[in-house]
Design goal:
4 domains, alpha/beta, Dihydrodipicolinate Reductase, domain 2, single chain, 8 helices, globular, 337 residues, Translation Initiation Factor IF3, 4-stranded mixed β-sheet
């Protein structure tokens, strides 16, 4: 049995999720201790437990320690099966992170799966729906993975209640992927994701983006009013190059000015353009496990502790060489051999 220490590296929920994913994909059992030890509230929260339950369901696994607050878990997977699945977080906890756990295991099967997920879709502690749709899934498409994802209802923090439908089509062939050029900057595309709040907030955010990035657009084309249980506001900016679309987000919080929310996203965009690495920090982290199977290389901004931890967890389950090649002070190349 593989032993995993949840206090290692960044010490958060990603260690558990990646371990579940890799256990299912390699059919290896593991035991994890010190779950989320580096977080203010350690142990399994509702969204982590939902990810565990989802992994149990799709892989017919046996498990010990699957309860709220648990800091130790043993997971014994069996055969991963495609099918129609319905998983509910039951809070504003991210259902995107539940998807992150089970998608890699399901995407390599030769039969279609349909997932219905409920929970947070726009949670500041996780990649939002739009990031997956605009940045992550197009890279999977380059690998030959065909995933359709639709938002039925947005789930903002703290109300939650979002609904997603994901269709994972049978894979024909997993293709090698190399993304090593920033490419030509084609377009900077802002969008305000908005629900149950005054439109003046969105207008102020767009005004800040227009002024600071010196781009022109029609506000009416840049405000996406979503159905949701609670209020929500997210500033989104897509940087579209000839190589890739990289999405950036900034979440509104009570007491923070609209202009400051927009500026946070603008800063991310400017930093990305200046570094000129096509794969940003968060996308890099999301792509580690798929790239282990597809092989190839990625030019990334400097690796976060999150990503470094993820790489080390991969090596516990799979005998693979992942070369980390420093290009300069702000860029590294990951080579999956």
């Amino acid at each position: 049995m593989i032993k995993v220490d949840g206090s290692f590296g960044e010490g958060g929920g990603q260690i558990l999720r990646s371990s579940l994913t890799l256990a299912m994909m390699t059919n290896q059992a593991f035991e994890i201790i010190n779950i989320r030890a580096n977080r203010k509230k350690s142990g399994l929260l509702r969204q982590h437990l939902t990810a565990v339950k989802a992994a149990i369901k799709i892989s017919n696994a046996k498990v010990e320690g699957d309860f709220i607050g648990s800091t130790k878990l043993s997971f014994f997977p069996s055969k991963v099966e495609s099918g129609d699945y319905d998983f509910k977080v039951g809070s504003a906890g991210s259902c995107i992170l539940v998807l992150q756990t089970i998608l890699p295991a399901l995407m390599l099967l030769n039969k279609k799966s349909t997932l219905y997920l409920e929970g947070g879709t726009h949670n500041p502690m996780a990649p939002p729906f739009d990031f997956l749709k605009n940045s992550f899934l197009p890279v999977l498409k380059k690998m030959g993975v065909d995933v359709e994802m639709s938002l039925k209802r947005a789930g903002f923090y703290p109300a939650g209640g979002g609904q997603l439908c994901i269709i994972i089509n049978p894979i024909k062939c997993l293709s090698r992927v190399s993304i090593n050029e920033f490419g030509d900057l084609l377009k900077i595309k802002p969008k305000i994701i908005h629900s149950n709040l005054p439109f003046s907030i969105a207008s102020r955010e767009l005004s800040t983006i227009r002024k600071k990035l010196n781009i022109d657009f029609d506000d009416r084309d840049c405000i996406e009013q979503l159905d949701s249980i609670g209020p929500g506001n997210v500033v989104a900016i897509d940087v579209i190059t000839s190589t890739i679309t990289q999405s950036f987000y900034s979440f509104a919080f009570r007491g923070i000015k609209a202009e400051s929310i927009a500026q946070n996203c603008i800063n991310q965009v400017n930093n990305y353009i200046n570094i000129k690495a096509p794969i940003g920090e968060f996308l890099c982290d999301q792509l580690i496990i798929p790239m282990v199977y597809a092989k190839g290389s990625l030019l990334c901004s400097n690796l976060s502790m999150h990503t470094k931890t993820n790489i080390e967890i991969v090596k516990k389950f799979i005998d693979i060489e992942i070369e980390i090649k420093k290009i300069n002070d702000v860029q590294v190349q990951l080579i999956f051999i």
